[in-house]
Amino acid sequence: MTASTETPRRIVVVGAGMVAHRFVESLLSRTDADVRVTLIGDEGRHPYDRVGLTGFFSGAGADDLTLDRGVLDDERLSFTPGDPVIRIDRSARTVTTRSRAEIAYDRLVLATGSYAARPGADGADLPGTFVYRTLDDVAGIRAFVESRSAELGRPLAGTVIGGGLLGLEAAGALQGLGVECTVVQSSDRLMSAQLDLAGGSTLRRLIEAKGIAVRTESRTTRLDPDRSGHVTGLEFRDGSYARTDVVIFTVGVRPRDELGREAGLEIGAHGGVVIDEGCLTSDPAILAIGEVASFEDRCVGLVAPGYAMAEVAADRLLGGAAAFPGYDDSTKLKLSGVDVASFGDAFGTTPGALDVVYTDPVAGVYKKLVLSDDAKTLLGGILVGDASAYGSLRPLVGSALGGDPAAYLMPADGVEAPTGDLPDEAIVCSCSSVTAGRIRGAVHEDGCMDATAVKTCTKAGATCGSCFVAVKKIVGQELTKLGQTVSNAMCEHFDMSRRQLFDAIRVSELTTFSAIIERFGHGRGCDICKPTIASILSGLVGAHVLEGENATLQDTNDHVMANLQKDGSYSVVPRMPGGEVTPEGLIAVGQIAKDFGLYTKITGGQRVDMFGARLEQLPLIWQRLVDAGFESGHAYGKSLRTVKSCVGSTWCRYGVLDSVGMAVKLELRYRGLRAPHKFKLGVSGCARECAEARGKDVGVIATEHGWNMYVGGNGGFTPRHAQLLAEGLDDDALITAIDRFFMYYIRTADRLQRTAPWFEELEGGIEELRRVIFEDSLGICADLDAQMARHVDNYEDEWAATLRDPEKLKRFASFVNAPDTPDPSLAYVPERGQVRPASPEEREAAEREDGPVLIAGTTLEVRR
Q: pTM for this one?
């Protein structure tokens, strides 16, 4: 197989899956590549993430799974979805599609992937039987379960035939749909391709503890129908029988090599189009990548080697000499509450290999490292029940561990990455074949100053996310070398991060700053740790922000519960839940603003902001607002700001649900909730999205099936679009999900970290967040629910409480010796019927008596 020396201009890619997408992305990343690419897909949609397919059952829609559309916007590319290629004419160098379009090529890239196999048992194609391969497959499974359960009037019993990686994910998906599930495996253990017998036994106990039954050494011989023709039972080789209503086959995949076969390309003994190390087939004008490619007589159904092939093929077509290094079989299970990973020579087939094993049957943990015969070089490993070390150990395969191997296996809160630097050639991200050297280059050469930027630049951690901890570790090491400060310490007085300090305060039940710094810190504290601890105590203890020691901890705004403005005055923002306010309320606000000479403006959060209040006037203003039925809008705090809404079904002819009612309910529930940073919500009554909900920390959009919940959006300096977390929630389910989202954020985010960057840095991404919130994967949902319930039950308006306390009111004085004297430095200029702060130039001109009239304070006195 020898490559042609001519420069290929017309490149046709057959298949539009993840590997094809990566190939196109790699090829077109070279802006000087003078090529014309035609991408042809079977499915009528853009390439999407098959690795994250299970996320479909926890709320991810097709758009959420779609890969970067920007890759296909390149003017050098033409994308044709839903028109599969049916024939290759090698002599004419053309392909023909189902629509009879004939497309010429200089080079052809086969990326047709594989198809999910069904067993040869009778009845394997009955209604109610499925494979688990495409978006259409999972959509069909969900639709069938919902309709069949309603038809039968009971929960369904389900069976997954095949106990490998995909089978266990499918079982978790069925269980999430309310199906009582059994996994049937023909071998003696689950995940037999990745785990040894001891690891498989541990995994079985973990799976069964989740309520999923496991049946090993069982082969299905027949599937029986009921009277309506739907599957109703399974017969096994040993003569036993099991009832079932839905069956998913995950018994393996087969390469889709029919185009190659018909075109006369060399086919491997076990199927697949044979390729060399440059991904060339027996025809030098045709390359094959991904699951359809047979390398050393193997076709592997994993995305990581497919991505590696895609990079090699792109490089070869652009004149390079990259070579495919062989298959990386490392895998990690993505199932809530079950941690499993396998990497390298997991079964110890290397001559002289040694095993180091740690097992804890009670805790459900099994760990094994496979080492070279001198016990120094890591060859592979298996982790079951606790795979936290995977991100640290996986890149070390083939390298010296540099310490006692047992140290990597013993229980801990998480195994740290090795203290020594990984070699540049060590693969950190197996999905995208990103080496430690490439990550270092992103820091030193590309200017990436954090792990998120490195992920964007290199794709490390962008697919399954399991390597992101290791990526962060390397980035931290390189930033340190550059003299950048990389520390989790919150400040010089606490060596802990905010998250660690939150947990320490919660567990110790300390309630004062002095007690906390005495036990966990040193010194007297600063303007970083004091407000942070005040916020933590507000959530855990619920004391008033100006109560006792808390009063000395607050930052400028919280000290007086108002927003300090540029001229030293303050703004006043009463809460208007959901933007709803009565005419009487508007009149009261208007009269107050008029009486105190305040500048008024409608905010983006649908309420009225009043500017220009002096410190000593704040209690007077708030007394009148409280009397009129208003309460603090917390515009000064790191807490809930607003819940924006449209009018929804109450007034709008397009409204699907009562968005105002839901917005009011949410704002009254989360008012005063202190957090690492401010947060906002939006509620839209239909998909027209008038409330801009997807630009909020939590966005809620009404549909005919219920509420869709989006998370992780924000405006500000770095805008983010929120991502879909769940679909079709009823009112109670929505509120529970939002409760848990905010409480999990409050517990784990760093100081001053918005929900968007916090969400982006979560290990496991949105899938893990769904598991935490909806499946209680961390076992903390009861705590989160109880913590939110305490907040709701104990909420008291801060300003109303302050007005009742003479000691707190003493804080609101312009001058200690003359508390009622207005600040003489405040001066305003009339503009558009209101007033604004005078500029320095206007102040100077006024003093010369040739400038504007200045208004002092809010007494409307004219001074010259």
A: 0.54
